[in-house]
Amino acid sequence: MIDAGELKKGTAIELDDKIYHITEYHHIKMGRGSAQIRLRLRDIRSGNVVERSFQANDKFTPAFLEHHPVQYLYNDGDLYYFMDNESYEQTALTAAQIGDGTNYLKEGLNLEILTHKGEVVSVELPVAVELRVTETEPGFKGDTATGGNKPAKLETGITVQVPLFVTVGDVIKVDTRSSEYLEKAS
Known about the structure:
By secondary structure, this protein is mostly beta strands. Helix content is 2%, strand content 54%. It has 3 domains: 61 residues, SH3 type barrels; 59 residues, CATH 2.40.50.140; 57 residues, CATH 2.40.50.140.
């Protein structure tokens, strides 16, 4: 059991027979009475997000997730296929299990599958991925007083804001946590 004060963003806990990842953590001190914590939790299996409040002295059961290195192979409709790097065994996950991570999957991407008591529950993406720009407007110098951004569609179908100097065919690094442009890949 872990105390509420030991919780932090990214921790996995078991609650109501479900496994949740903590996406936001706020400690709230009331004027009178005991402190509370407000958690934003993402159900690892379904991807649903809930907000819950607890007393600061509550205890939680940590969820022990095993990490297995895998490589993304391909998708077939709603199923996404991954290959274990050690046993070469293939695993299929649904789009709901992967969540927004489907926006960053391209063939050959190395990532990790998370399992809980032998059951595959989710994937963990790298912090940044390199994707090719497939569509964007041309950027003209002098259009703005400051740097400026424009939308760009990437090879996986996601659209992100990029600087004006990025053109079609460029490979850029994108943060998988915030969908933000990081830098031009070399």
